[in-house]
Amino acid sequence: MTDMTATYAALEPSRAEKFRQRTVPLIAFAVLLLVIPLFNPSRSMVTLLNHMGITIVFALSYNMLLGRAGLLSFGHAVYMGLGGYFAVHVMNWVADGSGFWGAVPVFTMPAFGFGAGALAGAVIGWPSCRRAGTPFAMISLGVAELVAAAGFMFDSLFGGEMGISGDRMSGPEFLGLSLGPVDEVYWFIAFWTFIGVLGTYAFTRTPLGKLSEATRDNPERVEFVGYSPQRVRYLVFIFAGAFAGMAGGMSAVQDEIFTPENLSLIPSGAILIATYVGGIRYFTGPIMGAIIMTYMGSNLSDYTAGWLLYLGLMFVGVVMFLPNGIAGIVYGTTDTIRAGRLGEVWQSWLIRLAGLVLIATSVITIVEVAFRWSEGYGEVFEPFGLHLDTTNLLTWVLGVVPLVLGVLLVLKSAKGESK
Amino acid sequence: MTPALELTDLRKSFGPAKIIQGVDLSVGKGERHAIIGPNGAGKSTLFNLISGRFMPSSGEVRLGGELISGKKPYQINRMGLSRSFQVSNIFTNMTVRENVRCGVLYSMGYGYSFWRNIGNLKEVSEKTAHILDEVGLLEKANLPAALLPYADQRTLEIAITIAGGADVILLDEPTAGMSHSETDRAVALIEKASKGKTLLIVEHDMGVVFNLADRISVLVYGEIIATGTPEEIRGDAKVREAYLGEEAEDAA
Amino acid sequence: METLVFALLNGVIYGLLLFMLSSGLTLIFSMMGVLNFAHASFYMLGAYLAFTIMEGTSFWIALFLAPVLVGLVGMVVERYGLRRVHAQGHVAELLFTFGLAYLIDEVVKIFWGRTAVNYRVPELLDFPLFTLYGAQYPAYRIFILFVAAFMLVALWYLLKRTRAGLIIQAALTHPHMVGSLGHNVPLIFMSVFGVGCALAGLAGVIGGNYFVTDPAMAVQMGPIVFVVVVVGGLGSLEGAFVAAMLIGLLQTSAISINASLADIFGFLGLGPHTEVGEITIASMAPMLPFLLLVLILMIRPRGLMGEREV
Q1: Which domain holds residue C112?
Q2: CA distance B62 to C196
Q3: How far is CA C196 from CA A150, C36, C188, in A?
Q4: What is the pLDDT of residues A370-406, one digit of tens each?
Q5: What is the dihedral of CA B91, B92, B95, B97, to 10 degrees?
Q6: Does A12 contact B106 at a Cβ distance shorter than 8 Å?
Q7: Of the candidates A202, A208, A227, which has its C-beta nearest B74's C-beta?
Q8: Nearest C-alpha of chain A: how many angstroms from C97?
Q9: What's the structural domain count of chain B?
Q10: B77 with A214: Cβ contact below 8 A
Q11: pLDDT of residue B251
């Protein structure tokens, strides 16, 4: 019997393994959050980091639906928006400062957002979660349109087109943070980002979290092991709404304003893209997606007018060729290196990389030249001192030749791999 | 004594097609009961009616005396009836261990719990490991279910079915598509797993049926034409004519 | 009376345009299970292509050429995009078309700019056809009516009177069976996708100058087309027709009703100067289709005339 128990125990990851795989990354993440301010980031950098933190929590909450439960929502921003709106209202009550609300620190806003998001999820999720797949996606779309339209209609709740703003410096201080300057807001965001990551990760480890994966894989079988798939989806939906609301509460403090635009299909689509590009099959995928997309959104948009087009191309590329997203590449690469198989694959990888670089060269040339042409100011795309205008033969060569070569190379490497 | 499972005048039609036309069947506690019949006789439909996947058009199903027809599959499962599927119906993206654990969870009282860490539920882990051991999948516990060979997927199908500790177990062609040696192992497993439980099994392999079953019912065109011990069924003229005769001819 | 007649006429025209858009989507959705998010983008593409072709040649060439071009684009998208993601399931397909809609939007902005283009009604049709209650009724609207009716008859003929139509009909209700009939399913899918997109393109050609041709037209029209398909019911072109008419009439007539909620529910004590009371029916018009969508999916997933649930 003793050796039996020993075999059983060997099934589970050992304590050391658990520590290495679960606790260490979390500690590393916490340390990272603590260390970042030591590098004296600029104000705009801190603002960017704060937005990254918000998007991380939002993306993780979205992946509770898409990645873990297999529910494709086109309206997740509704829950972040409602959570955020509630937090802004609470901030204004705090600013009024009478009675109970006068004692509430603004630091706790994400908790209010969490509650409001959960409530919104509980109300809207009830009719939405009866079925998964396309009907769920369409209901989420309809609900998002309705809520956004209502947002523009009820001015006292949503403030019309101007939205509602709050003041994060009102109310009592918490932990000595006035939340005035952005670097103080950083600590607030860092704290809640960590809570969000910890919370969504812990959720994956609960019976309900595991059942949501089972329901994604095979809703019918779930019914025959004693669970109602609808109930599983509904509960997951409430949690996803809650964490989205939490991100809304974070955003309310960081940006101090919410507008009906925040409820619309546009932020819902953006979080879908960020999460999917990051990789929905991995817990860390949405984190990567959130960081990359927030960075691109704030930096690339200054750099090129075509950034939304690049974003779309990237998304379609990931859907078609990389269903596991960026996290899939990261983990696939590290696994291969760890397994000592780098020697076998490096040539094929190099070929593929070269192919991708060539394709990117063409795509960037085409997009940049096209944008300048379309704006009609006679501006010319001049990378590395080249003068690429529409009459230059080189432009067309660069637009076509590397693309063809690149596609051929990628096909070649794909063929080599399948052998 | 109330029978473990009792069907009374059970009927099911899909549009004009009457698939099950008045089935009466009583399976006693601890009995191993096999249902045989030609293709298209309605065996799988009968299972779907009992387990709640389909609603009966009329008639009753009782589990331990309690009416279960009209209830949802998960409610029926919670009352102690569990079934397997003819086509493997497993959680493909999860590991073998996680698959079995999904079957264990509800019966251990963890419902839709979201405040517990699943890794810390000791009795769940032990029960899961115990079942994996019983069916012989312990070594493959941490493999993704999708990567299992066919026979192992069939075994996993049974493992998920018995994981919840249901008293009444329905197995739908558990040995379909298996080789001889695999079938022998599966039969041994079924015997072991159904000890002290009530078993209702649909099976095409007559060797398995006559070895395993205490009693056999023959379903033809949605009606049970005979019920009895293996000997009685073997000797039944009606059965020979309607069914076993064909089988014998096929074999010859 | 006057408003009613005009609302009715405009509603019918809007409904027919909606049907032209959604008939293709219904065919695609029912047969392939793909809810093509980019369907309205093909509508937009049709309008823009027609604008460009009309600048170079004439409206009549655009009327023919633009839908054909859009159809070809659709076939390429099906062949090299959708077919690839098909193996990953419906969610991946939905995501693909979502990304595609995004891309088409951006590409349109590159080629034609971010503001509306001056896509105009051809001069030949730019005159008031008749006068009704002292108001003039433009001839172009009646032209839309004729094109839509012609398309309706052509589609009906194609589906009911040709062999390909019979196969498509079978595939609408029993999508899994067609393969076993020995037909080249991928080819059928590609053609249906192409024809569906071409119909959307046609709607763009004749709708683009009736409404406005700008980069937002796809986003505005897209969700409404979904609503038509779902409300009409899966596998049912008749249902899509009824739903398109219903929504067309609903929206155009709601816009022309200036009554506020207070006027209607005043007897319940709803004050005319409360926030809810001030909402007019006209301002709620854009919301109505979505309300219908959510309600139908919740209460009657088969839609009005569908054979199957969505």
Answers
A1: 2-217
A2: 52
A3: 33, 10, 12
A4: 877 777 777 777 777 777 777 777 878 888 888 888 8
A5: 30
A6: no
A7: A227
A8: 9
A9: 1
A10: no
A11: 46
